[in-house]
Amino acid sequence: MGDEQHAVFLTGGTGYIGSTLAKELVGRGHRVRLLVRPGSEGKAPRGCELVHGDALRSDSYALHVAPADTFVHLVGVAHPNPKKAAEFRAIDLKSCQEATQAAAAARVRHFIYLSVARPAPIMQEYQDARAEGELTIQQKGLAATFVRPWYVLGPGHRWPAMLIPLYALAKLYPPTRAGAERLALVTLEQMTRTLVWAVENPTDSIRPLEPMHIRRGFGDPEISRYRAASA
């Protein structure tokens, strides 16, 4: 664990990835303030401070972001698929724009954004919305970590596991090797570890973490380079 304890404002903290992350951060001694909608309080992990608000309206929660030094934004459409293209802009992108505005106003030190690996042959609208979210964060001048998985395996999210043998074959074939590595599957445990590491090791610039970083862990030379650059 890093020497510094962090005050974290977390959106999407009652969801698939966020609830696991919130529990882990609290267990490691960080202060977690969680944005929740009325009626979803029961989904919040113990030890979190609850802020009632709407992720699509920063004015409903912006005054409660401070004194956070870290803003983690995980809001997004559940189980994304090509039929939800309109929702990617109305929810994923809109919530990111609102979160970015709130974080900038509160002068947070570090913004962590759940983005997506790309380019990929499918889900173009999803990729576009997340890419625009990244651009919004950069235009606000925020130091940020962009965590870019393609698919996160875990409870209720296991069907792509059947593709693992195909990934293995693709990595053996030179023309498809790069794509297989760029869009590699990651686990919920790996994602949680990555997000915790990002909280505990803030950057002062823009730091993208791709599936290869998420899968390899933090003894990886590339990750170590990010740590050194952030010191």
Structure, briefly:
By secondary structure, the protein is α/β, with parallel strands linked by helices. Helix content is 41%, strand content 16%.
SSE layout and pairing:
Layout: E1 7-11, H1 18-27, E2 31-36, E3 49-52, E4 70-73, H2 85-106, E5 110-114, H3 124-139, E6 144-147, E7 152-153, H4 164-172, H5 174-182, E8 186-187, H6 188-200, E9 206-209, H7 211-216, H8 221-230
Parallel strand pairs: 1-2, 1-4, 2-3, 4-5, 5-6, 6-9, 7-8
Describe the protein's architecture and organization.
The chain has 231 residues and is an alpha/beta fold. The protein has a single domain (7-230), classed as NAD(P)-binding Rossmann-like Domain (Rossmann fold). It contains eight helices and nine strands. The protein has helices spanning 18-27, 85-106, 124-139, 164-172, 174-182, 188-200, 211-216, 221-230, and strands at 7-11, 31-36, 49-52, 70-73, 110-114, 144-147, 152-153, 186-187, 206-209. α4 packs across α5. The protein is globular, with a radius of gyration of 17 Å. The chain starts with 6 loop residues before the first strand and ends with a helix. The model is unreliable at 166-170 and 219-231 (pLDDT under 50).
Largest sheet: 7 strands, parallel
Estimated radius of gyration: 17 Å
Q: What strand line-up does the widest sheet have?
A: 3-2-1-4-5-6-9
Unreliable segments of 5+ consecutive residues: 166-170, 219-231
Amount of beta strand: 15-25%
Number of domains: 1
The CATH topology corresponds to Rossmann fold
Number of helices: 8
The CATH architecture category equals 3-Layer(aba) Sandwich
